[in-house]
Amino acid sequence: DGGITQSPKYLFRKEGQNVTLSCEQNLNHDAMYWYRQDPGQGLRLIYYSQIVNDFQKGDIAEGYSVSREKKESFPLTVTSAQKNPTAFYLCASSIDEGTIGTQYFGPGTRLLVL
Amino acid sequence: GNSVTQMEGPVTLSEEAFLTINCTYTATGYPSLFWYVQYPGEGLQLLLKATKADDKGSNKGFEATYRKETTSFHLEKGSVQVSDSAVYFCALSDGSKLTFGKGITLSVRP
Fold it and tell me: What's the rounded mean pLDDT across residues A48-75?
């Protein structure tokens, strides 16, 4: 079955630590996205990538970094500079930038701070 | 910039009740409009969409009509089921970005 996988389901971060959230898709989609979901705030775009080896900042990129070395993978690193990282993180993909409205989402990773 | 406004929640209904969830938007040009659903503990799924004015999107008994004159895309279902309990997000795309509303939680009791 094609889809998006995210791991781990839960992740704990210690003060000053960088953590990396995994996102893999086997849909052969060109575009991939990272969102942050906080209660009552909807989804906010962190980073997106329309093609391998290229990515752009979204609305709340500060304290985060990404890479896109392979088409199927788009890992997100939450750095120690992100002072309020506790949230639900969702990865998504679309066929290409032209179908940006039709996105397929992974099951999410919940990040908690110890 | 673009924005999506959803009615305040949560919404609690009895099974077989009629559902309306309001959504209005602000955008330049002619955006495409979407409803996404998030079941507990999961990611979002596309429920339905409409790409131009007066289009009606429909899926699983849910419907929404793209009303340009009122800049609205209200979600309706004639008879809700317990399995419809979820968070519903209205969203718009201007071709460069998908902008979400805050979401509304629907609980359907037997």
Answer: 96
